[in-house]
Protein 1
Amino acid sequence: MAGYKIREGDSIVLSKAAADRLIAGRDGGAALAYLCVLRHPDGCGAETISAELGVSGQEAERLLQKLAGQGLLAALEEEKTFSPEDVTTAMGKKEFSFLAAQAEHVFGEKLAVQDLQRLLYIREGLALPPEVILQMMQFFKKDVRRRYGPGRRLSSAKLEKMAAEWKRQGIDTLEKAEAFIRRKEEYADREGEFRRALGIYDRKMTDTERGYVESWIEMGFDGAAVRLCYERTLDQIHTLNFKYMDKIFLSWHGKGLHTPEEIEKGDGVRRARGTAPAGVPAANRNAAPAADETDRLIRLTESMKEEDT
């Protein structure tokens, strides 16, 4: 039987000592949580682990505490906070007073002290350069308007969250910020294409759904590949399920298959594209069953695969 190794460029450093402790812990969930933390160089919390592993916040916190107890994780330093007095001092400096004025122009209203505290945290706590913050604020406003319409009030808390995400992703120069915004704008322009590929006609995609699709685009898949994956998902579980589709895309990506032609040649074709799965009327293709029924179908499908191996 052929052996396997991590694809070149995909490596994550895992020390032998850490591997030994994970194995000794005999907790698969903790091992997966540790891999998630490794993917976030600046650290992450229970909320991130919960989202990435699909577990409850309580379970995610348990996993992190267990890893910390094993000496595998260190607690993040407390987030630096800024008082109203710090804001007053900062407003006496030309750079921050300029940022504050630009923020008020973007938000369309005078900022409260709490808003200025968040802006000061973005500048000094996260240490993002002024030019990056200015780019981010403009993008933030446009993104909110595009998602929710012109009447949506901007939130400094949401801006702070975006800033923390930019910092985590290393978007800390003007060039990186411009490249990131270009990618987001390209996706926004093509969102209609991907909605049609996924059979979504009567609503916008949620932020979680957008996150999945954007990750697929970054892997190198286009709308045609998304459609093909969607059809294969319908073949298997008869409903749109992003988590299930993500597993398919990760499998294709690992095999170096990205275009429909490559996928059909390298991964086989289960049915002609564009036709409804057997036994499912075309009118009901997008009708989502109850959550427990979906989970049952997924478990059934996975058990069938295990029996075939």
Note: Residues 270-291 have pLDDT under 50 and may be disordered.
Protein 2
Amino acid sequence: MFVSAPIDEVDAANIKAGQVSRITLDAIKGKTFAGKVKRVAPYVLELEKQARTVEVEVAFDEPPTSENLLVGYSADVEIVHAAHENVLRIPTQALLPTQSMQESKRVLFYRPDGLLEERTVATGLANWDHTEIISGLNEGDQIVMSLDQAGVKAGVRVQPEASKPEASKPAK
């Protein structure tokens, strides 16, 4: 069993057969399956009104056995092309939205005096879940996670909730 997935042509140069991958299936919630890139198509697909993509096949290391795995399930594939261990990282959702990829990445930092401060951070590797912080934050710094709440912006005084995550190192 394998998953066939389109990868944006911009990312295709980083994808090679044998790379470690993670597979999630919409029908099997809460589980991630290990896999490896089995094949990278030697051509780019150009479908009308879609991005140019390269078809990639990712095989399960061990296909699910206790779940009812059916051909045709919707799946997502995350291909690991680089990894850094023991780095400072934050949830990707804590980064303030930017207008373009060239803009500096920013977070709302909770100062000891209770005010929020917009802080520029240098980022490294990132995925949908976490972003590596190279500079701009230290381990234990508190940042805002609820960017969508009304009134949350630089310069306002806030009281943090105890459950708010801090910038942290990954557990390895």
Note: The chain has two domains: 2-79, 82-172.
Protein 3
Amino acid sequence: MIDFHFDEEQQLIHETVTSFAAEQVRPAAHDAEESRTIPQSLVDQAWELGLIQGTIPEAYGGYAQEPSSAVSGAIVAEALAEGDLAIALHLLSPRLVVDPVLRLGSEEQKQELLPLYCGEKFCAGSAAVLEPSWDFSFANVGTTAKRNGGDYVLDGTKCFVPLASSAARMVVYAQDEQGVLGAFVVDTGTPGLEVGEREKNLGLNGLETFEVTLSDCRVPATRRLGSDATGMLRRSRIALSAMAVGVAKASLAYAIDYAKEREAFGVKIAQKQSIAFMLADMATETDAAQLLNWEAAWKTDQGEDAAREVALARYYVNDAVLKVADNGLQVLGGHGFVRDHPVELWLRNARGFAMFEGAASV
């Protein structure tokens, strides 16, 4: 039987991250979007919470007592994204390296790489998954990895790679000669890996993303993680669906508060039937999306094949967050189009969930 009750540790995580997102992340979101910069002081505060170190076992420098839970990861991702999506993706970027190493890496790889993410200062991570192709899919990744002696030679182009210019290493997903999806830890200074100009996107302007080109990029075979990385991309979809739920929750809460305060023709607009029905639809979509994603995360934690649940959650949540964010803007009417209100940013960010792949992990 599926159980969505938080245990004591998950409840503490939820309360801590929700409070941090409301008190620190949300107030910084507007300036981060406008300036295209996330304050280092905010990053340092988040690092002190131990959101990354708490997922790494003590043997490698962290303080996790047991393997990180997909449900716990979804709780953190959802709460941070309710504060701001761009900041959430930045703060959780180390997991793009940590999680694949934890789940796919050898003991030697864990000993080498995981302690790097347990220091006193924020250590950015990155993953190169998405490709600038209309027919991109996990089943047919265009980036190739060909074995050559003791190395793999990587060739291909990736886009929407977060923090590629500041992360010391990234996990590149490429298809080997047997058609198996592989994950390779690549140092950003490796010859043949070129980080392009910072991308300009519709939303998420606080998050630095880049196009990355791999041309005859040689990576030691010892930097390949496991044999098949498909499971990591499913976990990424759980994280992104959780973040979409966070954006939907933010839009819903803001619209409700606005409707309770805004008057038209002598009454609060929340008393207008059309507005009340719209808010009810938004709440239904948000709760449904959250439950679908929690089911996918819970089954993943049970060791079950959650491919179906992950796919259904991702499909539903992508539509739900866009609908909720759009309705949230409509509740505000003309004010929704003004950048002083965050609903227009949430709508722009919601539009991107259909194409975000590999930008987060649980």
Note: The longest helix spans residues 230-261.
